[in-house]
UniProtKB/TrEMBL annotation:
Keyword Ribonucleoprotein: no
Start and end residues of each Alpha-glucan water dikinase-like N-terminal Ig-like domain: 70-175
Keyword Metal-binding listed: yes
Keywords: Carbohydrate metabolism, Metal-binding
GO molecular function terms attached to this record: metal ion binding
Name under which the protein is recorded: Alpha-glucan water dikinase-like N-terminal Ig-like domain-containing protein
Amino acid sequence: MSGPSAAAAAERCALGIRGRPTAASSPAASLCRAKALRRPAALVASRRGPVSPRAIATTPADRASPDLAGRFTLDSNSELQVAVNPAPQGSLVVVDLVATNTSGSLILHWGALRPESRDWLLPSRRPDGTAMYKNRALRTPFVKSGNNSTLRIEIDDPAVQAIEFLVFDEAQNKW
């Protein structure tokens, strides 16, 4: 099965995570347009087409403890867990991604968001192995560890409000 191109997938669907999802948040109740993804402390989704999800992970500036920002089902027995961990001094935000029960090699297709722009910013601080994709996105491989795959992204630019990403499974050629 052949998946869509990264550009096509990025244009079709968006799922955003803002801080901690609330119990009152429901996917049906939180459908909204892409510009509404900038609202804090809610789980929001925007469907621009039926293809694949992308996600946004952020953390409020006043919180200095780790937080599981979201869990996403990747397939029948695999899950992506996203934790946002601000440093005590607040100058560095760490986003940890763990994909459980993975068999193939996963790639994170991502960029950073600023409040004043809908376009992705490509941060200069990048995990090892990161490659630029068409000067519009970054692609970073997950590190395989047993049945899981992990990735850590450190954001040191105070202008960055969030990272937005898609997960690509190279072995299955799908998003």
